[in-house]
Write a structure and sequence with these properties.
Helices cover about 50% and strands about 10% of the residues. Strands 2-3-1-4-5 form a five-stranded parallel sheet.
Length: about 325
């Protein structure tokens, strides 16, 4: 996509934009994260149903902005240093390299510009973005936005891996992925490592910063939706009345996301395939389960998952 042109009065636009960015960055920011296929979209849309929360997705601020900005500044410093040495020696003008805080300032400014283009609902207390793998940059985001809060979703890796396996097949059918991944073992190990990194990074962050992150389990949102969502509302210090919580749950319900399809009714061509807990027992065999447990039993136990459960006798992965 190209960059659209604009006919705005640039001097006036620049002044107004700088002031507007400064103002919007005073607004508390909310980041929703979690390993892929863990229910982050479900939670994002539920949160966005609250009148005091505006939560979009997926901005990918740290990987699509942060990393390229860091690379660009590093290259600029390197080229400027070589130019100074080759042409100017001790008479160089630009002798001080841009430093890490400059990179962070540019990132903040870029995010502010993006948020200015969001039609934030009136009265929103929080402006949020859901990008699952903010788990990998959670410390960096906390440093750049110290007033921000994080909502982290954890899902049983066995179910998350099942969902990832089916998604890989769907993407292949749609021509969006040339790797068909016909067998679960082609998905299990790389996905479980991604999941482990996500849950370990956020657990470490939560231990160091318990007041700025709230972790909920996907399964608890299924089993006790009102109480689980209410705790998120209380963490964000917004209205947690029954009506507000129910509005959030309705906004993010599976039926809403799947356009009327009931939870448990499978559509393999949908991003929201089935929306159930424990489907891994019908997909993976005993060897698959053993591989997962070998890699992630400690993390599963830490988050209260039963690692003694077994697959169904007739379980067979379908290509």
């Amino acid at each position: 996509m190209s960059i659209p042109d604009s006919s705005k009065d640039f001097p006036a636009y620049f002044d107004a934009q700088q002031e507007a960015i400064s103002e919007i960055l005073k607004q508390p920011l909310l980041f929703v994260c979690g390993a892929p296929k863990s229910g982050t979209t479900w939670v994002q849309l539920a949160l966005n149903g609250h009148p005091e929360i505006h939560c979009g997705g997926e901005g990918h601020f740290t990987d699509w902005f942060g990393r390229p900005i860091h690379k660009m500044i590093a290259e600029y410093n390197d080229k400027m240093g070589k130019t100074n040495g080759f042409i100017y020696n001790e008479r160089a003008t630009y002798t001080q390299p841009l430093v890490r805080r400059d990179v962070q300032f540019i990132l903040r400014t870029m995010i502010g510009m993006v948020l200015l283009n969001v039609d934030v609902k009136p009265g929103a207390k929080w402006i949020g973005d859901k990008t699952p793998l903010y788990t990998q940059s959670i410390d960096y985001l906390h440093h750049v936005f110290p007033q921000a809060r994080f909502v982290n979703i954890v899902r049983d890796v066995r179910d998350a891996c099942t969902s990832t396996f089916h998604q890989a097949q769907r993407l292949y059918r749609e021509g969006l992925n040339t790797n068909r991944r016909e067998q679960p073992e082609e998905v299990i190990e790389p996905f479980v490592e991604t999941w482990r990194r996500a849950v370990n990074d956020t657990a470490r962050f939560q231990k160091a910063n318990p007041n700025v992150i709230h972790t909920l389990r996907y399964e608890d949102l299924h089993a006790e939706p009102m109480e689980t969502m209410r705790k998120v509302m209380q963490f964000l210090e917004v209205d947690d009345s029954d009506d507000s919580v129910q509005t959030c749950l309705d906004s993010g319900s599976f039926e809403t996301l799947a356009k009327g399809r009931k939870r448990g009714e499978e559509n393999r061509d949908s991003f929201f395939r089935k929306g159930v807990v424990g489907d891994w027992k019908n997909v993976f065999n005993a060897d698959h389960l053993q591989t997962i447990l070998k890699l992630a039993s400690d993390e599963l136990t830490h988050y209260g998952y039963d690692i003694t459960e077994t697959v169904n006798e007739n379980a067979e992965a379908e290509a």
